[in-house]
């Protein structure tokens, strides 16, 4: 069974996906434009089908773990990311400031398969800012198959904790448009900025 994002409550906490907090308009359109400009001023990696940037710690997609190879260290977290990491703590979305940031670029037709962010690698909160084009992210419960489609608008903040972080899988379908109550809406370029804390296995 599934629920359309048009049917979801407008409150920040979604009852349909426990632990999911969605905040539209977290950044203004001007703030989004400035953030995108800062991101595009830095080099992109083409190691995946989509372009990415890693800061603080590099994530090894092959091993599904945080890369600890000192020969390929990730750049330090830039000032623009530190500013938002501080804001996430100040607003109570995260308990500690993120020490790992991944920027993903999605062109129309690109998506990401259903997954749960690496449990042994990252802490209990995952927060992501959406920039550029809107898109639909699907949250799926692995046991009963419930699917909840959430529209991620430009400038919105999506925070995953509890079941939304550890149980529900999230994905973006690889398509060039998304269904809405008013018909299909074409996608444009979308950039996501995801903030995480690293779990140190040596502790």
Query: Which parts are unreliable, with pLDDT below 50 for 5 consecutive residues or more?
Result: 1-11
Percentage of residues in helical conformation: 10-25%
| Helix/strand/pairing category | alpha+beta
Q: Please give the CATH class.
A: Mainly Beta
Domains, number: 1
> Would you report the number of β strands?
15
Fold and architecture overview:
By secondary structure, the chain is an alpha+beta fold. The protein has a single domain (2-196), classed as Jelly Rolls, CATH 2.60.120.1520. The protein has helices at 29-40, 79-90, 162-166, and strands at residues 2-3, 20-23, 52-55, 59-60, 65-66, 100-106, 112-115, 126-132, 135-140, 147-152, 157-160, 169-172, 177-180, 183-186, 190-196. The strands form four sheets. It has a six-stranded antiparallel beta sheet with strand order 2-11-8-15-6-3. A five-stranded mixed beta sheet has the order 1-10-9-12-7. Strands 4-5 form a two-stranded antiparallel ribbon.
